[in-house]
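User: tokens in, sequence out, please.
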């Protein structure tokens, strides 16, 4: 297919959307967007040594931004801290998460060496995460402790572009300090009407999971959603405004041929209308961007290198698909009702070693099973799958996660790759269905389907794999040094969307 044909198709695609879908939220493979999802943060301990998490957000534009920064604990996505961050043109903000003290029962604490304006201001000594929302009746998890704030995920969401007097106030001067952070603590009502306009995107970021004593620093890039909002949202505190419910009700996704691992990759463009769908149009649009039937990645659990592997799997829209009162029933694509032990979605796990020998991890290979739930499940909203060379259990081996599902690789495979499949009834048979005004385009054949609803199977998931190698103390010249290292690698996903051209 020549470039002229592809350009013609692209023009037809976006013309076909019409003015009602002028935005159309999509995951930007270039890593820039209005809505950044960081799948994991932690201050847990691994081997008695604590993790810190460092997060950054970069304003790559010459415009001012106001960004909602929101941290969510990993069991049930309860907000544990949020604030408004003001970025001047080309600004970078950095936040550091650590444990409030040396115990494993203390909350996470946020500090920053940065001078960018925030509302509220972050004290020099930092601010501890809160467990206030863990006491809500809609939070069905038994654990209400501060320790629950120690791991989870976060969102950074541009709510508006900043102009006028507010932009002058937040812009750094020659000394590297904003002119007047008092001007946004809070923003005067008159300035809200004149100085805030439609978000324009261009945010990027990084997450760094650092364990100094273990000698590891593993970095990842957040999911970047572009064209998320078509209206400005005023910066507020004390509510969960600026979130997935505000997302544009159109989504665009580019994937390979449906659920066919041998088919031609990357030739389908799905443009879906979620207006008036339940529970919320914006939530379904966002979920559609991450719906997958399977998650795939590699593992290394070699005894010789003392290596270990964790997989992070986060469901950033899961909380919207549950009833707010007992019996906490789930809406599709999720299947399991919420219980005191979590909302446990069933999975299967198959693995293959580097010599193409594999097996399926059965029920008895998952340990420990959650109370009153099947063994092969993921129960939380930010989960860590710990791959082990035996049937032991406990905190995950890399991250020390307490939101853990242990999977035993008991056939002697010390390295290879695995495939985790979502097997819940709603994930496999119902999924999410877009409105009849949705379209699909085949990039390779110019085939089209206009005004046909699309069904997305699987679950909305994102995350990455982490692996560490522990070589202990080695000779380095005339002395010794610790030779430990680790890395973070994105997952691969299998997608099922039908019908397709």
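Assistant: Sequence out:
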């Amino acid at each position: 297919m020549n470039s002229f044909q592809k350009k013609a198709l692209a023009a037809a695609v976006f013309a076909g959307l019409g003015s009602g879908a002028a935005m159309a939220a999509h995951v930007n493979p270039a890593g820039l967007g209005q809505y950044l999802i960081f799948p994991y943060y932690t201050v847990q301990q691994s081997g008695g040594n604590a993790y810190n998490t460092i997060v950054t957000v970069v304003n790559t534009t010459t415009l001012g931004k106001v960004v909602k920064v929101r941290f969510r604990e990993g069991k049930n996505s309860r907000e544990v801290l949020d604030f408004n961050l003001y970025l001047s043109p080309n600004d970078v903000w950095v936040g550091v998460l650590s444990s409030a003290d040396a115990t494993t029962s203390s909350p996470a604490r946020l500090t920053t060496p940065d001078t960018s304006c925030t509302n509220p201001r972050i004290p020099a000594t930092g601010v501890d995460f809160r467990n206030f929302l863990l006491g809500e009746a809609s939070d069905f998890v038994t654990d209400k402790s501060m320790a629950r704030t120690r791991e989870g995920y976060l969102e950074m969401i541009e709510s508006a572009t900043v102009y006028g007097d507010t932009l002058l106030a937040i812009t750094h001067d020659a000394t590297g300090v904003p002119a007047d952070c008092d001007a946004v603590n809070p923003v005067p009502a008159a300035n809200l009407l004149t100085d805030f306009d439609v978000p324009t995107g261009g945010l990027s970021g990084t997450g760094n999971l650092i364990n100094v004593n273990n000698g590891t620093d593993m970095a990842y890039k957040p999911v970047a959603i572009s064209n998320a909002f078509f209206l400005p949202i005023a910066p507020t505190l004390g509510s969960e405004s600026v979130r997935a419910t505000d997302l544009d009700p159109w989504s665009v996704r580019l994937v390979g041929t449906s659920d066919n691992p041998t088919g031609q990759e990357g030739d389908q463009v799905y443009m879906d209308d979620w207006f008036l769908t339940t529970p919320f149009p914006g939530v379904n649009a966002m979920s559609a961007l991450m719906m997958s039937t399977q998650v795939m990645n590699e593992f290394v659990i070699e005894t010789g290198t003392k290596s270990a592997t964790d997989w992070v799997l986060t469901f950033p829209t899961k909380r919207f698909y549950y009833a707010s009162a007992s019996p906490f029933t789930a809406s599709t694509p999720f299947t399991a009702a919420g219980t005191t032990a979590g909302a446990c979605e069933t999975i299967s796990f198959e693995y293959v070693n580097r010599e193409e020998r594999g097996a399926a991890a059965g029920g008895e290979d998952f340990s420990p099973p959650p109370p009153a739930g099947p063994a092969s499940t993921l129960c939380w909203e930010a989960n860590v799958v710990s791959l082990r060379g035996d049937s032991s259990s406990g905190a995950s081996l890399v991250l020390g996660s307490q939101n853990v599902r242990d999977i035993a690789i008991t056939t002697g495979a010390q390295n290879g790759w695995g495939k985790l499949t979502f097997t819940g009834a709603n994930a496999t048979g119902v999924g999410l269905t877009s409105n009849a005004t949705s379209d699909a385009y085949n990039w390779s054949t110019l085939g089209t389907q206009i005004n046909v609803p699309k069904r997305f199977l699987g679950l909305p998931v994102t995350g990455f794999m982490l692996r560490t190698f522990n070589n202990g103390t080695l000779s380095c010249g005339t002395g010794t040094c610790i030779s430990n290292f680790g890395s973070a690698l994105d997952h691969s996903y299998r997608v099922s969307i039908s019908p397709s051209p």
